[in-house]
Known about the structure:
CATH class: Alpha Beta
Oligomer: single chain
Number of strands: 17
Structural class: alpha/beta
Low-confidence stretches: none
CATH topology: L-arginine/glycine Amidinotransferase, Chain A
Bound molecules: N~2~-(3-carboxypropanoyl)-L-arginine
Shape: globular
Strand content: 15-25%
Radius of gyration: 20 Å
Amino acid sequence: MLVEINFDGLIGPSHNYAGLSHGNLAATSNAGKTSRPREAALQGIAKMRANLALGLNQGILLPHARPDHAWLAALSTDYATATPALKAQALSASAMWAANAATVSPAPDSQDGRCHLSVANLVTMPHRSHEWPGTLAQLRLAFANPAFAVHDPVPAPFGDEGAANHMRMANGHASPGIEVFVYGTAGGGFPARQRREASEAVARAHRLDPARTLFVEQSETAIAAGAFHNDVVAVANGPVLFAHELAFADRERFYADLTDRLPEAQIIEVPAAAVSLADAISSYLFNAQLVTLPDGDMALILPEEARSNARVWGWLQLMIAGNGPIRQLKVVDVRESMANGGGPACLRLRVVADPATVDPRFLVNDQRLDQLAAVIERHWPETIDPNEIGNPALIADIENARIALLDAVGIVGLIDSLPSS
Length: 421
Ligand code: SUG
């Protein structure tokens, strides 16, 4: 039985505001602030609990070993002597944004009938470029069943940021879909992180039908306004596309190509005159989880910031009052992640699969979440001031906290590669 499972990145104990992502306005404007890792991780757990209460299937991906000693060793340094910039890049908890972990093509879309996952190389940002080995180790464990094919990253320099630049549309999760890969060039001095060559390579690896695969360019205006990933200006679920008017370089052509391939497609476009790109990006209106509930209704799971923006919330109220496919709004508090530019949708990787084929250690219910929350309450640092990241006692706390979590999940020693000598 194929269902959608949302795998949320569990927010790691090193969560901090180092301002590492040029083009991500939230992250750069909060650089230097004190973070609250414990609260951050508990906010993530509360979001997962709320999704379970809606009847959705929930999984987890685990925080990576941070600082990443293997990466520093490959750069011929170590944490004690690394420059402040390398220290921050080695310590980032950015693997929490699981939408950037991989691109996923469900089995009905692939010519070999398997669900394909390609780990993202994330090469554009140094602090994210060393995530993929830790992610790949987890994907190989979680999706070891022959129902899945897990692929290595696309080689540099073709930047690939995973599901954040990929949308799948279909009549139902288990029906053959149309896969939409969104790539960029540049915008307003900010880098485009997804390259068309990378998207094309992923589509080939996943054995997608070229007739049901679209490559769509993100608009430069959106990138310049701070949409460093497509999922900041668009989200899709089933036959529904919810997007900002200025999300794509050539929207008319994209919409025509889409409805040609999926005549049932329903496009909900938010006009710039009602919600500006600046409002959309600061409120993360589109970084919502658009989900199908067990009764068939669709719900939009939004961050608090969308409710506190009167223009955004007003537009959503009008949408709900109409007779469109999105019937419910749910609000979650993920402020600690939001301050680094990661909303509800960034925190999750969607996989359409039979849960019986997934390693059960990566699936959660309320009891499992209670167990994880207890570890977080006991071990996660309460605060991290970026000036403290050289403090060996803090680093020891961060490393011990993660080991306590892996121990609770039952995977100590299974997902960490040792630094090569
Ligand atoms: O890559 N922030 C992440 C946010 C990723 C959001 N993901 C999606 N839109 N799917 C990024 O820019 C900030 C970390 C720092 O600055 O310390 C950061 O990496």
